[in-house]
Amino acid sequence: MISPGSRYVALGSSFAAGPGIAPVLDKAAGRSGRNYPHLVAERLGLDLVDVTYSGATTAHLLTDRQDDAAPQIDAVGPDTALVTVTAGGNDLEYIGSFVRGSMMNTLAKPATILGRRVANRIRARVSYLRDDSAYDAAAGRLAEIVREIRDRAPSARILLVDYLAVVGPATRPRLDVPLNEEQLPSIALMADRLAGVFATAAEKSGAELVAVSALSKEHAVGSAEPWTTGFTLRPPSLGGVVPYHPNEAGMAAVAEHVVQHLQAQ
Predict the structure, then answer these.
(1) Where is the SGNH hydrolase-type esterase domain (predicted)?
(2) What global pTM score does this model have?
């Protein structure tokens, strides 16, 4: 168990940062004061350094600057006791493909007024699937991040926290999300493959895995108590949400599973 007052560094992309969830601590990063790292730190009394950043790829965690922010790994030092990592989805354009497909299908509806050919051209702009090498590469990069964390903080516990499920058994094509019966299974397959990336990286690197993806499928879009948002063209500033991202309940659920994992070990 991590002792109260210990240094906790949170690394990751938007599924850790919490865009659209109040209060907003960093608008550019889309970082919320109620994301799962903040909730975990509050629950366990940890000294949190949260460098999560919406849109981050594994390269932004390891080597690349993002806007004016240094590579996230620079926040890890010898006194770090806990590190959580939620990244890799942007490497595969997972949520990006889901959003673009939903947007194109939504825009294609009024486009049918101009003709089926125009509507079909709009729909055809999104490719959902990636080949095996893309998933293998993402797993390798996550494992590399773990190795770099271990070099910088040899005593730290390192948790790979994967992505909340957006698509689950209750998610209905056309009704809950603007994808059809052929498109939605492709997104579900991408989500399953991304969960496999985390499992592979944990096995390769020896990091601990918190597989919230499997635990949350009953709380996907279309369920009675979703932990992620659905699709809308309305931005949060106008009363909308950031599409296909954790909501407040989802962040609380991830935090609970991380705490339970830490307390059980």
Answers:
(1) 10-253
(2) 0.92
The C-alpha atoms of residue 102 and residue 115 are separated, in whole angstroms, by 19
Integer CA distances (angstroms), 195 to 53, 86, 165, in order: 20, 11, 9
Can you name the residues that pair with 158 across neighbouring β-strands?
A: 83
Distance CA(121)–CA(116), nearest Å, equals: 9
Tokens 């991304």 appear where? Answer: 194
CA distance 170 to 191: 15
First to last CA, the chain: 7
Distance CA 16, CA 210 (A): 13
Phi–psi pair at 184, nearest 5 degrees? -60, -45
Please say if the pLDDT value at position 138 is more than 50.
Answer: yes
d(CA 31, CA 52): 7
Pairing of strands 7-12, 47-50: parallel
Asked whether the beta carbons of 248 and 36 are under 8 A apart, the reply is no
Taking the C-alpha atoms of residue 145 and residue 204, their distance in angstroms, rounded to an integer, is 12
Helices (H), the chain: 14-17, 36-44, 58-62, 94-111, 116-123, 132-152, 183-205, 212-215, 248-264
pLDDT digits (tens, 9 = 90+) for 87-114: 999 999 999 989 988 888 888 654 444 4
d(CA 46, CA 37): 10
Reference 184, options 261, 246, 128; nearest CA is: 128
Walk across the sheet containing 157-161 and list its strands.
47-50, 7-12, 80-86, 157-161, 208-210
In degrees and rounded to multiples of 5, residue 49 shows phi and psi of -120, 105
**What one-character DSSP code corresponds to residue 68?**
T
Per-residue pLDDT reduced to its tens digit, 39-63: 999 999 999 999 999 999 999 999 9
